[in-house]
Each structure stands twice: as C-alpha cells, then as structure tokens.
Amino acid sequence: MIAIVTDSTAPFTQKEAEQLGVCVVPHSYFANGTVYLENYADLNVHYTERITAAGAGAVTSQSTPAAFSSAFRQLLAQGYEVLCMVISSRLSGAWTSAVTAAREVGSAKIAVVDSHATAGALYYQVRRARELADSGLPLSELADHCNKLWKISNVAFSVEDMSALRRSRRLGPLSQSVNTILNCRPVFLLKDGTIVCRGLAHGRGERVRMLASLVPKNAQYIMVQGFGRQPIENSLTRMLQRRFPNLTVQRREIGPILSIHIGAQALGVSWCLD
Q1: Which of 40, 73, 147, 203 has the smallest set of CB atoms within 10 Å of its CB?
Q2: Which CATH number fits domain 2-149: 3.20.20.330, 3.40.50.10170, 3.30.420.40, 3.40.50.720?
Q3: What tens digit of pLDDT does each residue of 252-261 get?
C-alpha cells in the first residue's frame, strides 16, 4: 500500500484527505504576535482577518524536516510505502525539508517528488497520484509518473498589488519589473515551477477574461481560488462554467500561506488536463 504526503498549500478538505489516504503536512504563519498552522482548506478559519490586520507583518514558515519525518515514520510503521509530493521547490523550501527528512529516515520506501506547482494544480496532481497508486504501480514507477504530472497541470493568478510578491522573492527575473499601475493588474503563470508574468489586465473584466483564457481548451478539471470569498471569484467561475459547460468548476480559498506570499485579494485558477 502506498500513502501520499503533501503540504498544506494543496487545498484538500479534511474529508477528502481522509478518503484519499492523503497526509497533509502543515506550513505555519505568524500574524499579530501569534503562530498558526495552516489547516485543511475547510478549516482555515479567520485567516483573512488575521492577515489583513497584520499587513506586511504576516510571515510564513515552511513545513519542517521534523514534520515530514514524523509523518514518514508514522506511515512506515503502519506498513505503508510513502510518496511525497510538495509545492514547487522554486516557490518554497518544503521540497528540501521533505528530501532531508527522507534521508534522515533512511528508507527506500519513501519517494519525494517536486510538483513544480502549488494550489489547485498540486491538488490535482495528488489526486492523480492516488489513482495511479491504486492501479497497482510500484513506488518507483509511481514516482516516475508523478515527476511528469506538472506538464498537464498548472495555475494562473492575478494580484491587486506587487508588494507581497516582491517580499516573497519568488518572482522570476523578468517579473520583478512588473508593477500595478492605475487600473492595471498583472497576470502570472507558473513556468517550470517558477512565477512568470503573462501580461497586464486593464480593469476587473479583462482580469477575469485573461485568467479564463489561460485555461487550455482540453482541461478536464478546473478550480477557482481567492482570498476569502470575493465577488470577482463569482465572475471568473461563471465565465469558466460557460466555456466548459460539461465540467464542474471547483471553488476553494487560497489559504493563509499563499495569501501572504502573493497578497490579499489575489485571484487564481488551476487546471489539469487528465
């Protein structure tokens, strides 16, 4: 049996994680003098208020090697092999933490995969990994397959201002020069696991249209994510639902960790082709 470990930027609800046999290792964040753990997507209560109140004082801390090691040891003790898929190594040190933990545990029954993704794209990769594991693939072959899943999944997003992204230092070199001016908002995409700018959207309507246009026509799964619940999310969801009438567009919140790194009022869409 193979258990799957991921990090909390993948927006799994508690019920989904339990049903799929997915262990979610939390990141943490500091706001207003208190440290909080990022929780399942449906249990991250009050994070929007905390982050808004803290402003630039809200900071994050990646999942630690100790946290991954504890998860790995518990699953191995229960008789599982472990596949670990985490946020892109170009966006977080969580992959390094997981690799360090796997090395410390010293078991050939652990495989760590860099998803080159986050948010809904990581969520879809983990779900696909669960399907592949249940089909009977041995761990080594499963890891090989999962190392290629970033090619069929991705995430695009737009922000209200660039200050949080600049503080995060996760922008590609060309994207560092992007600014929010007047009513223009930048739209970004992940490319090989790093953030690149796809252009500027003039106004709310174009912002929605540009994000929707980045979703490939052959997408099979789509998820819209925002900071809390915003009216603009409804607009993006409706547009995508019209473009893809045979699909159900999922809705999730971005969650505290990604919100701190890309900024409050961010809006994103993730997809998977298979």
Answers
A1: 203
A2: 3.40.50.10170
A3: 999 999 999 9
